[in-house]
Design a protein that fits this description.
Rossmann fold, about 375 residues, globular, six-stranded parallel sheet, seven-stranded parallel sheet, 16 helices, about 45% helix, single chain, alpha/beta
């Protein structure tokens, strides 16, 4: 069995690492990197650290407007699929790379397996939401991390090919946390102590592309710094550029606005933070797994279980709400058992292998 795997952004590298370890035991994996995230801190470092094989294809698409970026990905992925003729195409999550990979495969009548299917924010202003919904509609295998995701698909009339497998990011965290604790020197480098700092990330378009939202978030971080809190803020390149436009990088009173860090460093920062402030879905879950209160800088989340369990507070971008939630977080008692048992990747590969046995040979021709 030959399986083409599409990745392009940091969260996908993490998910891919967990699945690839299992997939390579039973199949030929053709790894295709779109180049959506392309600098060393956002891409190459993750491949080295997570021991992901070097991609067979690096399309080098880079950043750009959604239409131009997605269109270039679609064109180049199609060329690779016509050459490789895989039995399946695996896509992860909700990025433009996800959508482009799924569309290219579906138009060539190659079955698509969507890892992290069924997630919904119910906010159509989010590019990620559009990518999720469309990808799920054209996927053959819908590999869901939660019961909520399965229910979302059922309400949309999608029942065939739906599987509850758990969260492959949980697999990645469990596999890597011991190594991270042993090897990372990020706390020493930043001169911070466990449970004496707040960890913040901001990268979603709804926050970075709206100056008023980013300004309010920056103001909240400034208020927290004035009150004596240490805010460790690994800034996505796009976020840092937007902050510079707002003249807020130097204006932030806290000095710990840093470049993106590696996956292992981020695990350590997340585990030992006092509170996490983020608009990232992955970091919401990692905070939950580590028992760290999370303040989500959005009005909704796909990971509703973290909110229902009391570990996650949705605050939007209102500075007063952000500061209040960050300085007086809830501390519930919860076993943190959602999202699986660390064996989701094994289930994904078993389903792929089992489905492949029943497949008619794919007609891989341009239509």
């Amino acid at each position: 069995m030959k399986v083409a795997v599409i990745v392009g952004a940091r969260p996908q590298f993490i998910k891919c690492a967990a699945v690839s370890r299992e997939l390579r035991k039973v199949a030929t994996e053709v790894l295709i990197h779109t180049g959506q995230h392309y600098d060393d801190n956002m891409s190459e470092l993750f491949f080295r650290e997570l021991e992901i094989p070097k991609p067979k294809y690096n399309l080098g698409v880079g950043s750009g407007p959604h239409g131009a970026q997605s269109g270039e990905m679609l064109k180049l992925i199609e060329e690779v699929l016509l050459k490789e003729r895989p039995s399946y195409v695996v896509v992860y999550g909700d990025t433009n790379s996800t959508l482009a990979g799924a569309l290219a495969a579906a138009k060539l009548h190659i079955p698509v397996a969507h890892v992290e299917a069924g997630l919904r924010s119910f906010n159509k202003r989010m590019p990620e939401e559009i990518n999720r919904v469309v990808t799920d509609q054209i996927s053959t295998l819908l590999l869901c991390p939660t019961e909520t995701a399965v229910d979302n698909l059922r309400r949309e009339g999608i029942r065939k090919g739906v599987y509850l497998v758990g969260d492959v990011m949980c697999d990645a965290m469990q596999y890597s946390i011991e190594t991270a604790e042993r090897t990372s020197k990020i706390l020493e480098r930043l001169e911070v102590r466990p449970k004496e700092y707040l960890l913040a990330t901001v990268h979603r378009a709804e926050n970075t592309d709206r100056p008023e939202n980013l300004e309010k978030i920056a103001s909240a971080f400034d208020m927290l710094a004035k009150s004596g809190e240490i805010v460790v803020f690994p800034a996505h390149p796009r976020t840092k550029k937007r902050l510079e436009t707002l003249r807020r990088v130097d204006g932030l009173r806290n000095p710990l606005v840093i470049d993106p860090v590696s996956y292992l460093d981020m695990l350590v920062l997340g585990k030992h933070a006092k509170v996490v402030l983020t608009d990232s879905g992955g970091l919401q879950k990692e905070a939950y797994w580590f028992g760290v209160p999370c303040v989500t800088l959005r009005d909704e989340t796909e990971w509703v279980e973290t909110v229902e369990a009391g570990w996650n507070t949705l605050v939007g971008t209102d500075p007063d709400r952000i500061v209040a939630a960050a300085t007086s977080p809830a501390l519930p008692v919860d076993p943190r058992s959602h999202y699986g048992d660390g064996h989701a990747a094994e289930r994904v590969v078993r389903i792929l292998a089992g489905s492949h046995e029943n497949l008619v040979s794919a007609d891989v021709t341009a239509r």
